[in-house]
Design goal:
single chain; alpha+beta; five-stranded mixed β-sheet
């Protein structure tokens, strides 16, 4: 047999598949970024052909992207964990120095800097002094005092704004002094980031992270250090409050009535601190926080989102950093990183003890942490669902065991039959910004639908693709229609959905999802061409056109859907209805000529046609359905020797 050389595209695909192995191994053992250059360098040293080298370069870029995403996810998890640990320390505050030291240590560890330190303002002396350091080795640096406006830290303390420099010694934005510059030189610091410790509009100090080499701090790092600064300010404020409370208790010992009153307040504050700490540790929700504070404050506390929160009161609380009174209610803003997330509203309390006011404010802070945690968890799950579906569609991971394990963690089962749906919004006349916003809403709605149906979803090709389990009694058409209806309602715009035929063995068949997605895309395009935008359909809904749209030519299924009732009737009764249909259409749909072909009486033909009408429906002779029946008859004859 004549041997044909391999197709160039196939050769390139094989080279790319082979090139993935070294990078998968590097990813598996967590190698450094420099190690990813080795396979390419080795291939060049061995004189590999350009196709091989190009495939390795492409695999290297993809692997580095995966590594960066994994590192980012681990970093975000570590940041969130550190924030929760610090919040827990704050809830059980006993030693201010220990809490501040923990904050500085965690900030240094997460930002990966050489040094981290914290300064506090000294209003009587109009300067700021070093309070806590981590990683510092120079005694003069540890004893620095900065006047307001002097150096980077003095400027942060004066302006209440974060400042960053990648080379402090050469940065002319700051007021350099001999004392400060000498201390910085002793410590060997080059890049410095400073964020204010604020209580409402007042700056009480500065939190720093610094490196002994030039470095550009990313926006996320500045925001993270700002979160730690907020916790540090809260710890200092709480410690000051506890100090004031202890002093008040010492004075109130001279009056039993006042002592009882203050002790009751302290008990409530301690109770709410314990409850909030327990809620954080066991993953409670914002309404759990509101319920706990309601019991302690003997009132009704509710959480309202940013859209429905009382505007002026929330903005005042956000600006001052404290709960504010609004008529007979108290309002505490729930905010994080400059973003307003909502508010806690205590109703019907015209007077509020300062400790109770602080309790409401602490509850607002814990609520913001819980909301951020919920958002981060939801975004992480959406990304993981999308990554698994992308891997299935791109056939990147061929290990069935790993695919199944990843799916199980998302409550999905790749061993059951699934339907792939391609969804696209119909945003006619929308500009680029509106279209991008619509796609984001569609992706969010599709992820929610996939999660509730134990499926997967991912953004792809300007729309969204979903992988949904078929179910015992469902069909691909039912799923397509349901998805189109749900997504259209969710984003308030028409969404067109094309669905594939059911596919199985997704974990073991590398191309199963890819082929099904291509079929779903063809159905989606067919719907739009036929003027059925905003609907959902599968190949089986298009009659004989479905044979062209389907990824696998399901001829038997088309014949069964079209004339299956007649074929089954003949098989069970021994009749000749199929042959009668053939003769009827061959005779130009004339009963008289049909009876001559079959050599039967015309009444017999009429009876058979009446039976066929009951089996196929009253409109079986309509032009469109008659065309499909004739095509099904021809395919049925070709399917086997027994054409009857």
């Amino acid at each position: 047999m004549e041997q044909h050389p391999p197709h160039p595209a196939q050769t390139e695909q094989d080279e790319y598949a082979d090139s993935q192995a070294p990078y998968l191994e590097l990813l598996a053992r967590g190698a450094s970024a420099d190690a990813y250059e080795q396979p390419v360098l080795l291939a060049r040293a061995e004189g590999a052909d350009p196709v091989r080298i190009a495939a390795l370069e492409r695999a290297k870029r993809l692997a580095l992207g995966v590594r960066e995403e994994m590192e980012g996810r681990r970093r975000r998890e570590a940041e969130l964990s550190a924030l929760f640990e610090t919040a827990h320390d704050l809830a059980g505050l006993r030693d201010l120095d220990a809490v501040l030291q923990a904050i500085v240590q965690r900030a240094r560890s997460l930002l990966g800097t050489d040094v981290a330190y914290l300064t506090l303002n000294d209003p009587p002396r109009a300067d700021t002094y070093m309070r806590v350091t981590e990683g510092s080795v120079a005694a003069r640096f540890q004893q620095l005092r900065l006047g307001m406006g002097e150096g980077l830290g003095g400027l942060v303390a004066q302006t209440a704004r974060p400042y960053v420099t990648d080379n402090y010694g050469q940065d002319v934005r700051f007021q350099h002094t001999r004392t400060i510059d000498a201390g910085v030189r002793d410590e060997g610091l080059v890049a410095i980031l400073g964020v204010p410790l604020s209580l409402g509009p007042h700056v009480i100090g500065v939190l720093f992270a610094a490196d002994r080499r030039a470095r550009v701090f990313a926006r996320e790092e500045i925001a993270l250090l700002g979160s730690f600064a907020a916790l540090a300010a809260a710890a200092i404020d709480t410690a000051n409050l506890l100090t004031e409370t202890r002093e008040a208790l010492g004075e109130l010992e001279r009056a039993n009535a006042i002592i009882r009153d203050r002790s009751g307040v302290i008990e409530r504050a301690s109770d709410v601190h314990d409850r909030l700490a327990e809620l954080v540790l066991r993953g409670g929700g914002v309404h759990d926080v509101a319920a706990a504070v309601s019991q302690v404050l003997d009132g009704t506390v509710t959480f309202t989102d940013a859209d429905t929160a009382p505007g002026e009161a929330v903005e005042a609380s956000r600006a001052e950093g404290h709960a504010v009174r609004r008529g007979a209610d108290w309002v505490a803003a729930v905010a994080a990183g400059g973003e307003l997330l909502g508010a806690l509203v205590l109703r019907g309390q015209t007077r509020l003890d300062p400790v109770d006011q602080r309790t409401l404010e602490r509850a607002a802070m814990v609520t913001s942490l819980l909301l951020l945690a919920r958002r981060s968890a939801a975004e992480a799950e959406q990304r993981v669902r999308g990554e698994l579906l992308d891997d299935l569609l791109d056939a990147r991971d061929h290990d069935p065991r790993l695919l199944r394990e990843r799916a199980v963690r998302l409550h999905a089962d790749l061993d059951t039959a699934h339907v792939v749906c391609a969804a696209r919004p119909e945003t006619a006349g929308a500009d680029a910004e509106q279209e991008a916003a619509t796609r984001r809403r569609l992706w969010s709605a599709a992820n929610h639908l996939a999660a509730t149906r134990h499926g997967l979803a991912a953004a792809r090709d300007g729309g969204t693709v979903l992988l949904l389990p078929l179910g015992a009694d469902g069909t691909a058409s039912d799923i397509a229609a349901h998805v189109a209806k749900r997504l259209s309602a969710a984003i308030h715009e028409p969404v067109t959905v094309g669905a594939s035929a059911p596919v199985a063995d997704l974990a073991t068949r590398a191309d199963a999802a890819t082929g099904a997605y291509a079929e779903a895309r063809r159905c989606l395009d067919a719907l739009r061409l036929l003027g059925r935008a905003g609907e959902g359909a599968a190949a089986e809904d298009f009659g004989f056109l479905g044979l062209l749209l389907a990824d696998s030519r399901d001829i038997g299924g088309f014949v069964a859907r079209t004339i299956g009732a007649v074929v089954t009737y003949d098989e069970r009764r021994g009749t000749d209805l199929v042959r009668t249909l053939d003769a009827y259409f061959a005779s130009g749909m004339s009963p008289a000529r049909t009876k001559d072909t079959l050599h039967v009486h015309v009444n017999t033909v009429a009876q058979r046609l009446e039976r066929i009408g009951r089996l196929l429906g009253a409109d079986w002779q309509a032009p469109a359905q008659a065309l499909e029946i004739q095509l099904a008859l021809r395919l049925h004859r070709l399917a086997g020797p027994d054409t009857r």
